[in-house]
Amino acid sequence: MFRVYFLGFLLLSLLTGCASVPSFKNDSLPVPLKKGGGYYLDDGPGDNPPGDIDAIPDAAPKVEPFHGRANQPYIALDAKYVPMTSFYPYKEQGVASWYGKRYHGKKTSIGEVYDMYGMTGAHTTLPIPCYVRVTNTENNKSVIVRINDRGPFKKNRVIDLSFAAAYKLRLSDKGSGPVEVELIDPRQFNALKKTSDLVNEKIKEKDVVAPQTKLADVPISDEPLYIQAGAFKNEKNADLLLKQLSDMGLENTPPFKKQFSEDLFHVVIGPFTSKDEANNIANLIKAKIKISIFVVTKEKN
């Protein structure tokens, strides 16, 4: 469905399709919600939202055929929009808004039923359906949503989110907020996920040897610190972890290295000049891949 930001907006008519939308148990939301008057055209959160919206899983990117009619050029509010019809790098910053109970249960631009508690969104020109990562640039919280609708058509708005997605980004109470939107190519995303799963599986095997010194236990020292992400008997497993770390695209990070000592292939990151710096990078890595990370006070020779 198209969101209506002011009276007089003429809805664009599109062919419909169908898709199932996951449902969640309706309990009371353990946070205060705004009541009437604070939302345009009486939109807003539902009366009986799920008990733990943060537990609603992100959309899982997969290859889907683009909807024919919904990706044709169209005009809304006297502006012409030409949707993308293929994947190419797209990243944009701007303001995100969200839509809720006024549109819950109604049809989206590709004919699917809108579920305000699903992880979906609307965009003016991205191909639909597609998947994007949305990051709140104020708190760095990030979600993945499936774009299945057109909009928003208000100036400076880059995406409309479902209530659940906005809640997980901590935007629902504000109504809108600054975000970065990045298009996900599901083929690349799933290839990286397979690599991640393989690395995690290998890390659980017996050929992984981890030092006993945990990050929090490293004493304050003038010596440079190095994160040890893994130690392997099999060099291929070390190479897999190096590739995954490289694919994460971490900024302002010391070099990733593979070093051999004590009959093991060590994957290390560093040097770091402070424990806080090492902690920050370690936390970023652990948030994306489930591995144990340790710190050593010197490189392996």
UniProtKB/TrEMBL annotation:
Localization, UniProt: Cell membrane
Gene3D superfamilies annotated for this entry?
RlpA-like domain, Sporulation related repeat
EC number of the protein:
4.2.2.-
What is the residue range of the signal peptide feature? 1-19
Q: How is the protein disposed in the membrane?
A: Lipid-anchor
- Please, which domain of life does this record's source organism belong to? Bacteria
Thylakoid among keywords = no
Report the InterPro entries cross-referenced here. Answer: RlpA, RlpA-like_DPBB, RlpA-like_sf, RplA, SPOR-like_dom, SPOR-like_sf
Give the keywords, sorted. Cell membrane, Cell wall biogenesis/degradation, Lipoprotein, Lyase, Membrane, Palmitate, Signal
Q: Where in this chain does the record put each SPOR domain?
A: 219-298
PROSITE patterns on file: PROKAR_LIPOPROTEIN, SPOR
Q: What does this protein do?
A: Lytic transglycosylase with a strong preference for naked glycan strands that lack stem peptides.
Stated family: Belongs to the RlpA family.
Q: State what protein this is by name.
A: Endolytic peptidoglycan transglycosylase RlpA
Q: Which organism is it from?
A: Candidatus Methylopumilus universalis
